[in-house]
Amino acid sequence: MTYPTNNIGAIHTKPRLLFFQYKYDERLPQFLLGHSRDHVKCLSEFFDVTVINYNCDYQYLCDKHKPDLSLFETGSNLPTCRRLEITNIHACPTIPKLGFFNADAWCETRSGTLSEMQHWGIETFFAISTTAAEHARQIADSLFVWPNFIDAELFRDYGESKLIPVLLTGATGPQYPWRRRIYKLISDYYPSLLCPHRGYLARSPAVQVMYGERYARTINASFVAPACGTIAKEVVRKHFEIPGCKACMITEKSPGLQAAGFVDMKNCVFADEHDVLDKVAYLFEHPEELQAITDAGYQLVHSRHTLKHRDQILQWFTLSKTLTATQRIVQASPFAPLAIVEASSGIGNSQIESNGLHLLLLHEGDEQLWAGKYEAAECLYLRCLNYMRRLPEARLRLALCNLYKGDAKRANEWVFGLIQYTLAEYKAVDPDPIEWAYYIISLLCLGKPEDARKCASEFPWLRHPELERTRWIINILRHKDEMAPLSHDRKGRLRHSIHQLPSRSNTEWLEQLCSMLRACRQCQVAERLTAHVSPQVLAAQQREDSSSMNRQILSTDDGDNYETWDKKPPLPFGKMHVLGSVNRRLLYYKLRRKVRNIVSRALRRAETTLGHMLPSSLWEVRNHEFVQAIHDLAREEDIRAALIIGATLSGGSTKALLAGALANKNRPSVFCISDSPPRFISLHRDLSNQAAVKWYRLSPSSLENPSAELEQTVHKIKEDNQLDFFDLVLIDGSELNHHVTMSHSASKELHAARFVLLDDINNVSNYENHNGLLRDPNFVLVDHNAGLRDGYAIFKKSSPAGGQVGNVLLSSSILTE
After folding, report:
1. What structural domains does the chain harbor?
2. Could you read off the pLDDT of 763-785 as tens digits, one per residue?
């Protein structure tokens, strides 16, 4: 195994690098613009860098600058950043080209990135994410990590006096469950400074957000600061910024941080909700140990994790110049040096496996899906989306669930959303091949064979086994005779997909397709397929597949790979003749607005004193955090009228809201809608003199048309009580599932209310309500836990002066009590 020299001082002349970087919107938050500048500054430590952030001709630039290496940034999902249009991209093939995936490992841009990189002839990638290989396994052996880092000139010890016991900084969206839990716990016990996070989009300033030196000095003035790497257990900049400014970092334990050299109670504190308060108390009681951990963390970061230590791209360049045809370059871990090994050794990139909760949920969902337990699988995938609402893997699997369940329309919508993003928003040349295959299949299941045939003929250069099988099926249905699957184009190179589906024989694949068709009431199509494809044909084709697939995926002849690509340049959005039937939908598809986040502290914990007024069963779930939050909110906020859809006294959420309303000084009216028999009489007697509670039962016959009666009931409540809107709306998705899903009236009441509380967001009905509120810029998510039972979320309507700021759980203040 050969390692590159790490003596940068021995390089007298830096290699020349062309860095094709996005054109960043100057209205973006300053910390994001600072990241883009840091990348250039880091590269400049090792290369003579020329930054290109405008549309250009690649051959012209190569002739002008004579680069030794070209680096292409890709993957950004910021809508106001402009991707470059580069012509003559296949000129100058002797100059090595690298891709730089500058995005979260799970980002929805991955399909577009793979399309872009293959079109540009780029086969080797660097990513800032330490978990990138877990989210792109098909390219793991050609994917290296250029990890996050700090600029030591900015993040350092300023000698500030330690005035802040605990610093709470960073976004607290649903993808940060550790951060949300820890912030709640610590802020209840220790004086804490919360720095609001304004989000990641271009917008006018609305709050004073700390960044740069002011932010670094604030860290330096803090004793401890929690940080986490999202649900994916990523290594983010804060993991280096906090100890780099000489504060003690409290964080979630992860393989990435251990690989970076962090050790619990030596140079950082690994903690969770079960021990964080004990550890923080111990450190404040033993200041000498707190100081030792802080000093060790500072030493670790400044000796291993500054921009001067991030020479992985230079390592690759140096090694590639001596690489032989029988060798390959590998990276043992995100923070290990690159090395050369013999290809025959079987050694590949050994990236870490963080196994974030979203990936575990996907795996659990897959087990249920392939076992035929579609409802259970659907709940797991929805729970995954409630942490990462645009995760493509979960969305595609939800499409599969719906195909197996017989809901072809919903399946088509799930897949089309993925296609729409890749083609219309990211503006890639072509979609993910597996997504495209199942879009075609969903059209078949909808009974639209002609639309499926037209889509199968689109993107003829796009090759993948799942897509080839789908095209084969379309060919059979078109010609109505027995024929083998389409022969694979041995000159064509298979496209990688971000999706991992089980390896199945042609026979198994066809059986599963026919199962979907029958479930979607396309029995005649399924019978035609089974009648026209014999076992002998399937067996013969399976042997052909096994001998040809490996050769195709390893093909690297650029002249063959891109012959058809160059004839069809990147597709402009809106060209009807190019995208055919799909583009008709894209033309009328309205881009969903980004979630605008607001700083809010909507819930305050308080001991309840009303237990004697409710059945004792409520106190069995008194410590259920959602039940407690409902009770506190209903008791303390200025509420006059509340609506419960799916009310039931067998569950804690209805009881908690009623108990809180009973204690509210406004004596609010509470209107309960349920399709259950009224088991309300005894409690109503206790509450009759203290709170107005009215019960409405939907008739059993309404199940045939649930929307109509629910809308009529809500309208009657508002009319009888002279209400324009409800201050608070609670929806229990498990109790009134079909009504909530189908009611347009319920949706209107949600968006008119001041507070919206959703129980069971991992069920289909409330998942849709939850997602709709996340898209509504008038609402801020103030509490969320998709992992508690079937998940919950609490939203608050922002005030007119709220400003456009980060989605933060707590208020921005120094807590002194």
Report:
1. 8-147+311-327 (3.40.50), 164-307 (3.40.50.2000), 390-587 (no CATH), 611-797 (3.40.50.150)
2. 887 888 888 888 888 888 888 88
